[in-house]
User: What shape does this take?
Amino acid sequence: MSADWSQLLASAEYLGELYDGAPPPTDAYDLFYVHIDEREDSVTLGFDTRAFPLKLPPEWRGKDFNAFEFHLFFTGVTGLRVTGWGASEAKVIDLTVDDGGHFDVALGSEASGIAFRATAARLARTRAYLASGNL
Assistant: This one.
């Protein structure tokens, strides 16, 4: 994942507060969910990690949670291109933010993957849970 991903995730409106401004390295996240909604011109990406947050919301405290997932919701999506999808494409994630604040997202490669541009992104959902085994 790119440096822009790291900066995005570290900001307060994303994961910064949960990880005290220093979320785990971006390769600690696994992309497990992609939802393309043409009705809203949006794409939602879901990520999972065993790098549990440092600052827990009250409803998570005292529980035996060891895994965390979050969803990023991109809106104003244009230029959507899907050329293939699979486990290897989910491992290659690139995000850049241009001077105008637009998000350019690429999952996989040009030969096989998903690419789009979005005008906005927000943290749509977070969830802690007890997982067994390793990711």
Observations:
- The chain has a mean pLDDT of 90.
- Residues 3-129 form one domain.
- The beta strands are 30-37, 42-49, 67-75, 78-82, 93-97, 103-108, 113-118, 120-129.
